[in-house]
Amino acid sequence: MKIARSINSHRLPADGCVLTIGNFDGVHLGHQKIMNQLVSAGKRLQLPTVVMTFEPGPDEYFQGERAAPRITSVGTRYCILRDQGIHVMLVLPFNRRLAQTSATSFIDRFLLERLRAKYVLVGDDFRFGQGRKGDFSLLKKRGRAAGFDVENFQTVTMHGARVSSTRVRKHLRQGDLETVRNLLGRNMQMMGRVTHGDKRGRQWGFPTLNIPVRRKLPMTGVFAVRVDGAGPDLAVPGVANLGRRPTVDGLKTLLEVHLFDFKSEIYGKRICVEFVQKIRDEQKFSSFDDLKSQIAKDCSRARKILNRQGGNG
User: Fold this and answer.
1) Quick one: which of 188, 201, 208 has its CA closest to 71?
2) Are 9 and 48 contained in the same domain?
């Protein structure tokens, strides 16, 4: 799958496409059903599939720190969408110019002139254009005039409630990773590149892989995890701390992962961390000795959790 970061990118299809538009944060089961429908339309029309999303998201642009935390980074979304069979992920920079583009201008410039969309699929609550004045009805009307089909994808429900990014965030805050797994169709994931840390964990006998986190988080705490990309074969089991490490007066948010029975150094490598179960909240300990003792307990519990769930704990 290609990624394009401009509407003028050479990576975009030149002869038309089928298209869906949205944030798709989390790429939950509802989003995945949209992707399946888009891929089916692409095969039927013999056209490439394009997913248009935004960076930052519109809510982040307008609300800043008040915006809801992201479930997935753009990089994580890319990897998930790639596995869904999408051809191009178009990540448009959401800036003042785009925010002030009228709904009709957005259709003309992006959908018609540049993408030459022949089929557009959107969610039932989709809004676009300046002042969020564009909606499904406008797309449908413009499509009839311009010659592209528009379909509205209805809400997906689970246990009587809508599958949504808001619902996923709620259960992440609560530490309910089992429900999150059901809503996403997979474990919660974070991807990033391993960087050098302060080596404190190594001194205590618990070396960690350190991944900087540059976004507001939907959850914090200590977790049993599996990591893909660290070794050549199967995912490696471990325990992770996600947060600001209050005992060592951490100022920056960091994902620290201690892998069990793993000795290799993989600085600079990109890994995927799958969160299997939450063990506890972050807490500040009165001494480093107390923290080291708790880390040992966390490791023991994580091994038991992963062994129960079929991991190599």
Assistant:
1) 188
2) yes
